[in-house]
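We examine the record.
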Amino acid sequence: MMNTVLLLWQDAGGDVATAGPSPLFWPFMLIGMAVFYFFMIRPSVKEQKEQKTFSDSLKKGSKVITAGGIHGTISAIDETQISLLIAPKTVITVQRGSISLEQTKSVYGGNTSSTAKEPAKA
C-alpha cells in the first residue's frame, strides 16, 4: 500500500517528491491571522479597557444601570462590590463588574426623570 502511494508521488526523474503546502500558503496564513486579530481580538481588548476605565471612574451618588437592567444610585463603593439604592430604603449589593453603564441619559435617548411631561394631545 505504501509503495503505491510513493509511486503516485514520483516525478519524472525517479525521485520521490515531498508533499507540502503551496509556497503561497504561509503569506496567506499570516494575512488571515492579521485580519482575525484586527477584526476580532483588538476590538474586544479595547472594549475591556473602556469597561475597566468606566468601572474605576464610578463614584458615590452616580446613577447607573446593571447588566441585568436594574436602575439605581450608588450608595457605597468597595473594591469588588457596589451598594445600589434602587428604591427608598432598598439597597442591594452587586459586583463592581456588573455595572454596565451610567444613566446620564436614557438608553433610548429620552429623559430619565420620572416626572417627565406627557406629550401634548392634539
